[in-house]
Amino acid sequence: MKLLLIILDGVPWRNWRRLFGNLEGWVEQGEARVRRMRSVLPSTSASCYASIHTGLPPQVHGIWDNADIRRLEFPDVFSELTRAGKKTGAVTHSYWSEFFNRAPFDVVRDIEYDEPEGPITHGRFHTMKGYGHANQMTPADHDLFGTLTRLAEVKGIDYGILHTCTLDSMGHRFHHDCEEMDHACFVMDGQLAPFIHRWRRAGYEVIVTADHGQDARGHHGGTGEDQRDFAFYYFGAAQLPPPDVVLDQLALAPSILARMGVAVPPTMKATPFFT
Questions:
Q1: What CA–CA distance (Å, rounded) separates 221 from 64?
Q2: Domain residue limits, the chain
Q3: What is the topology classification, in CATH, of domain 2-259?
Q4: What whole-number distance in Å separates Cα of residue 192 and Cα of residue 173?
Q5: I need a labelling partner for 50 at 20 to 30 A (CA). Which of 76, 123, 163, 176 fits?
Q6: pLDDT tens digits, one per residue of 29-69
Q7: Angle at which helices 179-201 and 141-150 pack, to 10 degrees?
Q8: pTM for the full model?
Q9: How far is 233 from 109, CA to CA, in rounded Å?
């Protein structure tokens, strides 16, 4: 079984459900299912990234904010899949490379690598160096989707993750209830759709989700529903809990491993939700 995890950073539940027409169309046609998922606390980007792949809360893995980025010494999705002989790929912000491969990030050494021993077999990263309110410094999402597709089709990865900060960065600048964000979500949905179609035809199950939400003032990190809750779209054959069950972000890592037939390490204590 092959699986791709697509993380669109910082999109609240309500904007997923009202603005992503292609994803919702697949749900309407029965080709995908959607559930609500809730992030860990703090609902801060780096804290969530670390939790998504280790299955551990920030109070255990120790990533409290976006400032203290270091190599994590816990079992994670990459390490366990590689140990089981799977090929992994990442097209993400450089934080993911630092958490799960090596730190600090060297832009020449680590911007692109192919390392059969892993834990990340094929890495393609970006830094967003210089990011600020007036300059997003985010790569084109179309290019990121193309890069992941190349890893799938040329490198033959079994598991791949793609992470883009475009919508999170725009949300911090414009906030989510505005014409700019309506359009940005519309564009993202339109650009992503043909790649989902292509990945599915290539035999991949696909998850499209977020790391956290974002509230009406462009903030996340705290406990508000808009800050923590987001959509989880699943294209695949496994069963999910009933629609009224809110999925736990800590269960994502063990769910991916279990779905791919790899043993879940004892550090990942949340019960997998795929059956």
A1: 10
A2: 2-259
A3: Alkaline Phosphatase, subunit A (3.40.720)
A4: 22
A5: 176
A6: 999 999 999 999 999 999 999 999 999 999 999 999 999 89
A7: 10
A8: 0.98
A9: 34
